[in-house]
Design a protein that fits this description.
Elements: H1 2-6, E1 27-33, E2 36-39, E3 47-49, E4 54-55, E5 60-63, E6 68-73, E7 76-80, E8 84-87, H2 88-93, H3 103-118, E9 184-186, E10 189-191, E11 194-200, E12 209-214, E13 220-226, E14 230-235, E15 245-252, E16 263-267, H4 270-281, H5 284-288, H6 291-304, H7 308-319, H8 328-339, H9 343-350
Helix pairs in contact: 3-8, 4-6, 6-7, 7-8, 8-9
Amino acid sequence: MIRNLLSILFMLVILTNSWSQQDEDPVILIGATGKVSYTAKPGLNSMAIVPGALVKVDGILSVKGKSTATLQYKRKIKHVGPNQTIALSELFGMSSTSSLSFDTKFAGYVEDAFVMAYYTPETGAEPWGQLKKKKGMGDGWGVVGGSRDTTARRGTGDGWGVVGGKAQKSTGDGWGGTGSVIYALQPFGHLAQGNVVFAWSRPAGKPIYIIEITDSNGKLIQKGSTSDTSLVMNLSSTAFEEGETYTWQVRTQGTANARSNELTFQMNSIADRDNILSKTEKTAAFENAPQEVRHLMHAVAMEEKEWYADAIEYYAKAQRMKGSKSATPRLMHSAFWNRRGIPARAVSVYNVN
C-alpha cells in the first residue's frame, strides 16, 4: 500500500528529463534566511518564495537586507546575499563553483529528494499528492511543501499515515499496531561508543520487547527490554570493541513471540566520525550556508561514509529547525529511508512537523 503511494523506490540518478512536464532543469532554493523573492520575467510581479521552491534559471532572485539564499542548478551550489539581486543565469554562469568537496554528491542527494516529490517515471504522476502552484510566478514550477495534504488518516492500519489520496484498509503487515511482524529500523552502519537509539516498528498488541546484541560469533553481548518501540542503550568501551561487527534483533516476550530482521553495525572511533564532520565544516560552502543546510550537509557526509545513525540525527535536526518553512529537510530525510527500502518509514518522517 505504501509502495503504491510513493510509486518509486529511491535511486541515485542524475536528472535529465526527470522533471514532470518540464523541458529544463529547475533551480532549487535549498535553504534561506530571511525573505527571498523571485521574478520570472521582466515586467512580471516578484513573488516571495521559501526553501523548496523550484524556479527557472532565466529568472531574477532578490534577497533583502541580511537575508541569504542557498541555491542549486545542475549540481552547482551557489549562495546569494546579503542584500543582493541577481539574474540566475548570470549566477550559475559564473566560472567559480562551490568549494565543498562533495558538492556534486550533495547536490545529487537534493535532486533525488525532489525527484521523489515531483516525478513518477511509470505514470508521470506526482507521488506526494497535490502540489499547489503559487499564482503570479509565471514560470510553471511552484513550491514543494506547505500545500500538500500529508495528514495521517485513520483506517490504513500501518501507523505511518498516507500522503494524499484516500485511506486504505488495514494491511496487517506489522506497521502501526497490526500484524505479527517487527521491522528493525536503526542503528546500522558505523557507530561510536556511547548512547545509541535502537528503534523498530510496532506489531499488534502491547508486548514487551527484548533487544539482544550479539558479536560475530553469536555470543550475547548486551540485552535490554522495554514496552516502547525504541530504547537507548549504552555501547560501552568495555563491551564493544572498535573494528568489531555486531548484530542486533528485537523480539516480543512470550511463547508466541515475534522476531524482527537482523541489523548489523560496526564500532568505530569518535575521532573518525568527527574528522568527517570537520572536513565538511572547513569548506567555504558550509560557512556561507544557513544552519538548516549545514545540518543537511552533515547528514549527507555521514550517509556517504555509512555513519547512518548520525545521518538520521542530522536530517532530523534540519527538519526540527524552529520556524522553518522549508520542505527540503523533510524531503531529504524521507529520501534517506526510501534509499533503505523502507517507504513506510519515509512517509512517517515526512509527516513529522
